[in-house]
Amino acid sequence: MLWCSWNEPELHLHPATQRELMPSLLAAVPGAQFVVATHSPFIVSAHPAARTYVLTRNADHGITAHRADESATNGTVNDVLRAGLGLTNTLPVWVEQQLVELAGQLHNADLSSPEPIDALYRRLEAIGLQEYAPEILARILADRRGGDDSPA
To answer: What is the predicted pLDDT for the residue at 134?
Structure first.
């Protein structure tokens, strides 16, 4: 069996190439075992049988490796980033700030009428973020319930 170790292969690759890299290598060299150090969700999720380990710093400042659960390698890129790499939010910071601000403005609005929701959508559309309307409404409803369902 051929064994290959590779450190951060995605560093200089376009995301489309990252997505195809491991499937292409696995097809080109059947039976090979690859050990890859990566932060790319495309490489982490490249094969359903992949075993993913997450390295974390422990209390003694040493490094601990633990096997990630299936959600770290299955699902969308955002799923892999959240479960595998520990990101709680995959939105750009400026988008998250805008969503928090807009959610705050509507926190006490009467959502039984369409006007506040229509106004929210118009504000989002004006800044090119209309696709995030569901996340803002989810944030508002979570705040009203006392939960923390932050958009991701």
So the answer is: 86
